[in-house]
Amino acid sequence: AQTVTQSQPEMSVQEAETVTLSCTYDTSENNYYLFWYKQPPSRQMILVIRQEAYKQQNATENRFSVNFQKAAKSFSLKISDSQLGDTAMYFCAFMKPGWSGGSNYKLTFGKGTLLTVNP
Amino acid sequence: DGGITQSPKYLFRKEGQNVTLSCEQNLNHDAMYWYRQDPGQGLRLIYYSQIVNDFQKGDIAEGYSVSREKKESFPLTVTSAQKNPTAFYLCASRLGRGSDTQYFGPGTRLTVL
């Protein structure tokens, strides 16, 4: 079974600075997907960024980028130019691809990192 | 406006009563999922459905039941057999074959008194 570990329960950053959230995972699969979701105080889960394991290029979405290290099974999220609206719980998640037996596109989540952006 | 709706936002029930949480989507997505979130925990999968009239147990299905009679709807019933039902419940959907991304509804906070 896959496991996802987020070792930082809480982090804080000053507005306009850069912060990196860590995520490691354990799997024997070679092909898979990784996601970062954001959950602000409203509790709505919002997709931040998605990475396909067979792509070496790190995914980016505006101020959000990842550092995907497949051999190390590491998937960190970098937030540049932090904004007050980035304050949220951030979840890292793993998914086996649909063609992998027993997958059914199920997500396995880490326990989350609470990020606070200070003015 | 397309999206996933969950109702109600807050739900209170007495211990021993069954309660049904609603999840509706108008995204024409084939697959739907129910997750449970407890304080300090990530999301855990309760049930999922890949297509209409078909569903499978997730990691923590005991004490829950679902139905998928329509593509748009995937209601979750929390039964009296669920020993600790107070939690935040999230519904998600996914387009279908070849699509890997799940999109989430706003959630329902269930409190059992």
Describe the structure in your own words.
The complex is a heterodimer of chains A (119) and B (113). By secondary structure, chain A is mainly beta. Chain A has strands spanning 3-5, 10-14, 19-21, 24-26, 33-39, 46-52, 60-61, 64-69, 74-79, 88-95, 107-109, 113-118. Chain B is mainly beta. Chain B starts with a strand and ends with a strand.
In short:
The complex is a heterodimer of chains A (about 120) and B (about 110). Chain A is mostly beta strands and about 120 residues long. Chain A is built from no helices and twelve strands.
The H/E string of chain A reads EEEEEEEEEEEE
Oligomeric composition of the shown chains: heterodimer
- The helix/strand order of chain B is EEEEEEEEEEE
Estimated radius of gyration of chain A: 14 Å
Radius of gyration of chain B, Cα only, in angstroms? 13 Å
The low-confidence parts of chain B are: none
**Gap between N and C termini of chain A, in Å?**
41 Å
Tell me the span between the first and last alpha carbons of chain B. 35 Å
Shape of chain B: globular
- Largest sheet composition of chain A: 6 strands, mixed
Query: How would you sum up the major sheet of chain B?
Result: 7 strands, mixed
The number of helices of chain A is 0
Strand content of chain B: over 45%
> Shape of chain A from CA axes?
globular
Mean pLDDT rating of chain B: 92
